[in-house]
């Protein structure tokens, strides 16, 4: 199911992964949000990164994906947490050495 692009997505934690597939490299955001008592953690895997604007703010980068969604990625949240580690581990199982965490 294709969702419409969202603006201002601000995860609690995030990492950028690069997937190599058939000599192509794709960079995606693996983001997570910490849950609470009533709602558990959640995660999101972005479409391919299209544009990174680091000049917008000294505290975060504005990242546009190929789907048109826009993420506000705070530098202090660039880490693996429980909320995004599960999906990262699934991707690592699927892609093996063709998946690695990279700098934004």
Question: Could you explain the architecture of this structure?
Answer:
This protein has one domain (13-102). It has one helix and seven strands. It has one helix spanning 82-95, and strands at 13-21, 24-33, 42-45, 49-53, 60-65, 70-74, 99-102. The strands form two sheets. The protein has a four-stranded antiparallel β-sheet with strand order 3-2-1-7, covered by helices on one side. It has a three-stranded antiparallel β-sheet with strand order 4-5-6, with no helix packed on it. Strand 1 (13-21) and strand 2 (24-33) form a beta hairpin. It is globular, with a radius of gyration of 14 Å.
How much of the sequence lies in strands comes to 35-45%
Q: Which structural class is indicated by helix and strand composition? A: mainly beta
Number of structural domains: 1
Number of strand elements: 7
Q: What is the succession of H and E elements?
A: EEEEEEHE
Radius of gyration: 14 Å
Strand order of the largest sheet: 3-2-1-7
What profile does the largest beta sheet have?
A: 4 strands, antiparallel
What count of helical segments does DSSP give?
1
The percent range for helix content is 10-25%
Distance between the termini: 27 Å
Mean pLDDT: 93
How is this fold's topology laid out?
Layout (H helix, E strand, L loop, with lengths): L12 E9 L2 E10 L8 E4 L3 E5 L6 E6 L4 E5 L7 H14 L3 E4 L2
Antiparallel strand pairs: 1-2, 1-7, 2-3, 4-5, 5-6
């Amino acid at each position: 199911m294709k969702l419409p692009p969202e603006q201002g997505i601000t995860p609690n934690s995030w990492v950028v992964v690069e997937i190599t597939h058939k000599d192509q490299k794709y960079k995606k955001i693996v983001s997570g949000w910490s849950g609470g008592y009533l709602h558990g953690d959640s995660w999101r895997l972005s479409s391919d990164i299209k544009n990174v604007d680091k000049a917008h703010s000294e505290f975060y980068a504005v990242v546009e994906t190929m789907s048109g969604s826009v993420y506000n990625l705070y530098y202090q949240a660039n880490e693996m947490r429980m909320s995004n580690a599960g999906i990262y581990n699934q991707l690592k199982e699927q892609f093996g050495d063709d998946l690695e965490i990279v700098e934004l």
